Every structure is written in C-alpha cells, then in structure tokens.
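Table 4 source record.
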Amino acid sequence: MSEAVERVIPPISYPPELPVVQARDDIAQAIAEHQVVIVAGETGSGKTTQIPKICLDLGRGRLARIGHTQPRRLAARSVAQRISDELAVPLGDTVGYQVRFTDQVSESSAIKLMTDGILLAEVRHDRLLRQYDTLIIDEAHERSLNIDFLLGYLKQLLPRRPDLKLIITSATIDVATFARHFDDAPVIEVSGRGYPVETVYLDPAEDRDLGLQEQVTGLVADIEHGRFGERGDVLVFLPGEREIRELARALRELERIEVLPLYARLSNAEQSRVFDLSRRRLMRVVLATNVAETSLTVPGIRYVIDPGDARISRYSFRTKVQRLPIEPVSQASANQRQGRCGRVAAGVCIRLYSEADFLSRPEFTDPEILRTNLAAVILQMLQLGLGEVQHFPFINPPDPRMVRDGYKLLQELGAVSARGKLTALGRQMAKLPIDPRLARMVLAGQDRGCLEEVLVIAAALAIQDPRERPADKQAQSDQMHARFRHERSDFMAWLSLWRYYEEQRQALSQSQLRKLCQREFLSFLRMREWREIHHQLVRTCQQLKYRINKQEAAYEDVHRSIISGSLNQIAMLSEPRIYLSSRGRKFSLFPGSVLQKKSPKWIVS
C-alpha cells in the first residue's frame, strides 16, 4: 500500500433511529481515549454498521485501514453492502470485503469487512498487522476458535502497536470476561430492542403427538390468521439445511405466505431476498440456521419460533471423533433468538419447550476451544511461532487432555517431533488450508504421484456430503447415486462423481446445471463449495511447486495416501460386521457403504 496516498472519505450521516447513534459521542470519546473498547448491545442496535463510521469520523482509516471481522461469510458480505449503501458509495470502493473465495477490496477501501479466518491468515504474512490502524472484532460473544485465537494474539500485539485501536463488539453476553482479559477495558452498553416482546412457552407434553414440521406449520397458520395478534413476518430457527428444506416444502402448501430459507451456503441472490423488503407482497416466513441468531438482523420480523436446539460441534478425545450433534441451545442463545423480534413493533417469541426446560439450560454456550480437536490450532500456532498452546493467553484455556490429544495426533501424522517441535513435514502441512489429517493425505499423494486424485478426495472430505437423500425419495436418490459406486472403495466414488460433474459443468449453463443437480439428488451449493476448496488446494500446491499427475494413478497409491492421514482410523474385523480400531474403539460400516455386505478383514475409514 502506498503510504503517501490519503483516502478520500465520503460524507458520513447516521440513521437517528438506531440505539447506537444515541451513544455515538460516548463511543467516540472512549475510542479516542483508550486502546481497547468493548461495545455491548443486542443485535439490531446498529453497532455493526455504525461503529466503523464513527471510526471514520475520528480520522481512522485514512492511511491504514479499519479492519472489521465477522464470524460468517454471509455476514461479512451483507454488512459491507449495508455500510456502502449508507455511505452512498459502490461496494469495493470506500468499503470492501474479503471472504474465503472472494476479494472485493481496492486501494481506496478504508473499511475492510472480512471473516475472522481471513484476518488470522494475514498474521502469517504481516505479524504486526501494519495495514490496519483500527480492528473491530464483531460478534465476539460467539467465541469461535478464530475469535479466541485473535483475542489472544491481539492481547500480545497491542503493547507493540500503541497506535492500533481494538474495538470488541458483543451481544450483552458475558461482557465482563472480555473486559478482564484486556486489563479492565471500558465497556459501553447500548440498548437494542425498541418494543416489548411477549414470550410464549409451549410445553411439549401438550403437543406430544405433533412433529416439529406439523407444530411449526400450525403456528405459522395461526399467525397468518391473526390468532397471536396482528399478522407479521416470522423467523423460524432450525438446526441445519436439511431441516430447512423439509419444512420449506411443508410450508409452501399454505396460502398467502412467502417462504425464504437463510443459511450460509445459499447464493448471494437468494440470501439478498431475505433483506429486500421492497418486493414484499405476502407475509414472509424466514427459515434460518443460527446465522440469524447473532450475525445478521433479518428486517421486519414480528414473530420468532424457536424449537430451542442447534447443531453444536463437539470433539471427543476418547473416541477421536468430531461430531455435530443437535443439542439444546443455552439460555444466552435462546435470549438472542428472542431478541430478533420487537424491532419494528411489539413482538412474540414462541418457544417450543417449557419454561422449566429453559431455566435448566446452561447460561452460556461453551466456547469452541473447549469442544474441538486442537491439532489444527496447535499446528497453526507452531507455524506462526506463537509458542505452545498451553501458554497462549486464551480467554478460556483449553483442557490439558485436549492439548495432549492434539499433540499426539500431530505426532502420529509426523507433523511434530516427540518433543513437540514442528517438523519439515509439519511446516508443509501448515501451508495447506485444510484439517491436518487431510493435509497429510495431500502430501502423501504428492510423494506417490497421485496428487490429482487425492486433492479431489481431500476437498470432498472437507465438506458435507453433496449427495442428497430426501426422506420421501430414498430409493430414487440411491438409484441415481449408484452410478458412482466403486466395488472396492467409497473413496473412489468421490472421483467418479467429480469427473461426471466436471463434464456436465463444462457442457451446461449455470441454470441447466442447477436443474441437473436437483433431478439427480445433488446439492448444487455443496458441489460448488467442493469445487472452490479443490481450486484453493490446487492453487496452494502450485505455489508450493508440487507435481500434479496427468496419468491416472493406481488404486493402491491413492489408498496408501489416504491411510497416511487416517492411521488411527484403520480397523480390523473382530466379530460379524463389527470392526475394532485403535484404543479398543468398535464401529460398524454405514449401511450406504459399498463394503457393508462384503465385510472385508481390514478397512480405513
């Protein structure tokens, strides 16, 4: 960046109706007087869109940038668009954004929206983060691994960068923890909700015969008929994409409502429909994952329906498996969901569980660092020279057993020595933007001359399976997917599917490809994500001067490469259909596996 050029900042105005604007002078004064400021306020108070503008008003962002992180790609893009609209400048000009596969930041960008992961990746190349004079870590209460990592790193960095300002924004959740971590930094609280919200508990005992779909469909029909008061838009929280699709299908049979899904993998155009109220004709029902809990304010919501659960990633160091079980959300999360309504008028939050159930839940969700496999964290820390994970200033230090487990896995993969030092192999693994186990497979693929095949399989293992199996069409979907089966290996099915999809992608238009995916029970969005991760891996391998084979590789070489990253997943048949793996773990093959009926003596999973 040229140091001589000072950016031109457009005129700045503030929407007077936002609660954060009332506290503008207090926030500006705190930022001017302190290096770290914590701004707490409910989602919808305007802190995400207005604080960067307050920083611009203070003269920040002229020579260096204002960096503004979001936990999710969807939020980074939509917030950048919103601030651009308010400043009346095109997106990518004064306000840019960068997410995993998109970079819309220009020389004139004074504000840069990005995911936490992008800022962490920049630490590798710029240890002092010199391109920024201000950093806003937004939605810090989410306590993702990346957020905790950044807050620990910034605590160490701030004394070396006295000119750098750090603003941490959070919902009104456990703010005291952040203040303590940054030596009692000042906290400014901003009110959020403008209207009262009534909370209705529906005791499941009374609706024992109804499934979730019937319950929600009935409630939406009641709202549409005015049984809870005036009609209004509804936001329904669901654990994942499959639940959203199934409920959307049921709700579309109702008349006079528009159903809008909202989750991170949707295309930009589909996400944008949720935020565009100009074309609204009918009562809208937005079906969202917990992306709408804290990261985004969905406009115009009068009613929230909260089944009270979410998919929460958890790692078990006993079974060595990272799972995504559906669990009850914490009280703090439930209250965040409740706060989605009451923005435009008095709201109603309908909880599909009892008040006693709510009161028995934990107050806060466990931070991700306490429930994840730490191998990737340890590898990145060693690569960045940040010292050992047990001595890093995390807000909540991880369980020592999880730390030992992470080191053990890295040692097994050859990434660290017996004394916990990074090896040459570990340095190469750290450069690949995937889980260490998958990175080890890629390096073995390069050594064995089968990198072409292993890159496809590693990228596939980094996403959720794109093959869809709707409950009402299992036979048809199984028949469609059977074309890709390989008689000896489920891993090889990924290669067949990839080659088929690439042929179709090159022959068809985008809309024809979407229709093909729908017909053939493939998720278009997951196929696209698979391609993007594969592209990123290919680019990294080219930068590292790895050779990508042109000739088709041997079956044995591909599978030996997979085994390199899955040593603790090798298992032996010990009794009919039951496999015995390391540390006495037992498992059986998934019914959809091509090997399920063959019961081979040895497998790698």
